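name: query_chain
kind: protein
chains: 1
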Amino acid sequence: MTPSARPPASLWLALTPLALLVGLLALNVAIFGDAGIEGPNQFALILAGAAAATIGLTRGVSWHQLQEGMLSVVHVAITPVLMLLLIGALSSAWTVSGIVPTLIYYGLQLADPAWFYAATAVVCAIISSAVGSSWTTAATIGVAMMATGEGLGLDPAITAGAVISGGYFGDKLSPLSDTTNLAAGVCNVDLFSHVRYMAFTTLPSFAIALLIFLFLGWQHSNASEISQSAQMLTALQNSIFLSGWLLLVPALIVTLIMLRLPALPVMLIATLLGALCAALFQTELIYQIGGSTDWKGLYKGLIQSIVSSTEIQTGHAASTDLLSRGGMAGMLNTIWLILSAVVFGGLMEASGLLGRITDALKNLARSRTSLVATTAGSCGVLNLTTAEQYLTLLIGGRMYKDLYDQHNLSPRNLSRTLEDCGTVTSVLVPWNTCGAYHAVVLNIATLSYLPYCFFNLISPLMSILYMRFNIKIEEKA
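structure:
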């Protein structure tokens, strides 16, 4: 029986795998805590996918169709997987080379705790707007901001929220962003027209987020933070070579990214430059990691520091924690999670269950305001089930194009809503490629930073409010 001829599943049946997944993940949090990422959550996704496949088989979907559904979405995970491996390598290489410690050292001297959260969001917004990528922003300036914030004694969850808020400002608004181009393309909207229209909801959302970050920063008394910062500065000076010349490497990498070179080659170049700096400036440390003082020890130390966990002893516990990296191997749990998640999404779509859920949501769109609210809800469901923001934008754009036409709304309203509600919320789902990526890069659980991603939480509400009060709403030509 063809998919079009097959009668649709009941909504409750379609929701069963998703309900099973949420229940298993909640159980894993209660029993395993943060260790859930080390296998239990991946197995939960596999079990939920198996439930979707079983329902599909009982409804006449062949195993071949289910398998094709899995394979059709696995390819979207290849780039994130390679990015994660290179980010793990880059992070370790930049740490043992002294680049990250130097960034932390100067950051601790210049940063003011009262302004730090807001400043982090602004800096990350500027970088992400220039490079068009929240992922690259988090892996470079975001890592440095996390370390600096910890050195100042600030809450890492709030710092991560500021990094992500700033990162997704540019990821959403920059004409260089993949998601910005995709949302405009799938809705057949001119790119720069799409960007200008998004600014109406994006700028107020970010302004509100900045005010909240300022308020949170002003709550901190900095007496203990200054003491910890001074101890960390001393520990860094005594344990590793620091130099402003090392900052030429991140400056070069940002330049390459702004020149629109592909991200994967740039990350590899960044890793190799970090390894070169480690060999030149941290030779004794590399010998120590490699276990000998000859060329073999140098080579072994460099490779080990890139591919496996590395800990630089500073004599100061907080500083040692900051300079501990997992390398490429430290990314494997996250890669496992992403692969399990996209398989779940592929099985949900191939079995027809995802389409049944989204059809039910579409039936709720009876007014313009409910249409935007339903689009937001659909984006949330798609981010939960497909685990990939690109699929969310593609499917969401196809689902709602005719409905926006029926309500006499310009397609720019749909492209803006997809970004307001789809792009920025992907990072809030622990098993979504974006949520898993940022959790491992920033070294903090998705559910820990989620309450502080103010820009990401406000954006969908802003989109709904603009439609409710008819603010900057363009009619169909």
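note: The two ends are 41 Å apart (CA to CA).
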